[in-house]
Amino acid sequence: MTEQTLHKVRRADVCAVAIADCFRGDGEILANPIGNLPVLGGRLARAVHEPQLMMTDGEAYLTGDVPPLGTAPEVIEGWNPFRRMFDVVWGGRRHVMMGASQIDRYGNQNIAAIGSDPDKPVRQLIGFRGAPGNTINNTTSYWIPNHSTRVFVEKVDLVCGIGYDRAAELGEVARFHNLRHVITNLAVLDFETPDHRMRLRSVHPGVTVEDVVANTGFELVIPDQVPTTRTPTDEEMAVIERLDPAGLRYREVKD
């Protein structure tokens, strides 16, 4: 009996692997996943198939190892304070995974405020943060733990991270714009269509295409055949257990 059959694979484990696959092929760049499951997926990628990825401890150090969530690294490769991070951002050698309070069919993202009037928002969120610079200069993916019509909307209330339609309007200014994947608790999505509209790439085990459509507030591009998101290998499952022994991933995705 394998390790994977001994451990019942849950949807959070599938999400961790899907996030890790976002960084596949990146090579020697800075992986900058934000949040518990993105960090777990980024560290999984480095441990299993992308050993050249640079990782941070979430503060001011580049790490030389892949410690469990919530623990300090044992190996420090470099100092990377906030001001130096901008050199990495402007240079484009970075793949950031952000969240989204709202996202539309072209990948325009909102994390700043909810409501039609930005001067008097219905809900004040975290602000623009680094979203404009991230999406202009760096490969960007998104992690959305609750796939719903409140998040996947026809039009975002305020654009923070720019999508493909706005990038096209900017022309040469946005030549490094690259939205890769959107990972949610239901599916993997991408923008690999002629007009860069969001496409359903795969559905997680136990999820149907109809489930995803019902929880999306705009029309997705849906291929004739939609595969199931892959589950972790035995090796990956062992690494996931080592990196998240407390099961923090299950607090984010409870299925």
Fold and architecture overview:
The chain has 255 residues and is of the alpha/beta class. The protein has helices spanning 3-6, 11-22, 36-48, 82-91, 131-137, 164-170, 209-214, 234-243, 249-252, and strands spanning 30-33, 55-56, 61-63, 76-79, 94-98, 102-103, 109-110, 113-114, 123-124, 139-144, 178-184, 187-190, 199-203. The protein has one domain: Glutaconate Coenzyme A-transferase (3-Layer(aba) Sandwich), CATH 3.40.1080.10. Strand 12 and strand 13 form a beta hairpin. Helix 2 (11-22) packs across helix 3 (36-48) and helix 3 (36-48) crosses helix 8 (234-243). The longest helix has 13 residues, at 36-48. Belongs to the 3-oxoacid CoA-transferase subunit B family.
The figure for the number of domains is 1
Largest sheet: 6 strands, mixed
Q: In the CATH scheme, what's the topology name?
A: Glutaconate Coenzyme A-transferase
What percent of residues adopt helix (DSSP H or I)? Answer: 25-40%
Q: Any guess at the CATH architecture?
A: 3-Layer(aba) Sandwich
- Rounded Rg: 18 Å
Query: What is the arithmetic mean of pLDDT?
Result: 93
Uncertain runs with pLDDT below 50, 5 residues or more? 1-6
Question: If strands are numbered along the chain, what order do they take across the biggest sheet?
Answer: 1-5-10-11-12-13
According to DSSP, the number of beta strands is 13
Estimated share of beta-strand residues: 15-25%
Pfam family, one: CoA_trans
GO molecular function, one term: CoA-transferase activity
Protein name: Coenzyme A transferase
Family: Belongs to the 3-oxoacid CoA-transferase subunit B family.
